[in-house]
Amino acid sequence: MKIFLDTASLKEIREAAALGVVDGITTNPSLLAKEAGDPEQILLEICRTVDGPISAEVVATDAEGMVREGRHWASLHENIVVKCPCIPEGLKATKVLAGEGHRVNMTLIFSPTQALLAAKAGASFVSPFVGRLDDISTPGMELVHDIVQIFDNYSLGCEVLAASLRHPMHVVEAAKAGAHVGTMPVGVFHGLLKHPLTDIGLRRFLDDWEKAKKELAAKAVEG
Ligand code: G3P
After folding, report:
1. Residue 223 has pLDDT above 90, yes or no
2. SS3 letters for 131-174?
3. Catalytic residue among 83, 95, 120, 176
4. From ligand 1's centre to the CA of 11, what distance in Å?
């Protein structure tokens, strides 16, 4: 499963990308609004930092406006993927943008039928929001399973990008469901690697090594 970070923070992105396992970035208007500076410049810098798909979302709600904004985002850098909301106008815009060769990530997906239509319109990615369904007592991960199965049934070349992942177990479940991509906040990303037994084990190895070295040095002095 590809790992994307769900953030527009360059600081967070640089730190996490240094580990060498980040495949792409998803942003949205809420995430960009949290950052100081020109969103366009931020997106460009993100593209220069991570060589993978970088989602930039349109804010127009009519197809014409979405296409105009989408073309503009796509013109900024080859890594940009245009994010369109899963509404009727978004579907129309996706059809046009995909027809022009632009990659589209259809976002705010909350049902398998939305995902099917997004794929038929030519989206390269669909983003089911797992956590937001969990928030309303609906099992979000079932949606990921359903979409993966539907796309597999018809060999649809659209990737399932599990979004709104809130904790490492969401990532595990998304991977088990066969999601092609999981996007997550950096806190969740760092949580994927952290394990107390790894830290304890490493401490013990290093302590034992130091002890053995000291004993060897002491024997050399005696001998
Ligand atoms: O990628 C979608 C994400 O930004 C939404 O996450 O946690 O606000 O539901 P959340």
Report:
1. no
2. HHHHHCCCCHHHHHHHHHHHHHHCCCCCEEEEECCCCHHHHHHH
3. 83
4. 19
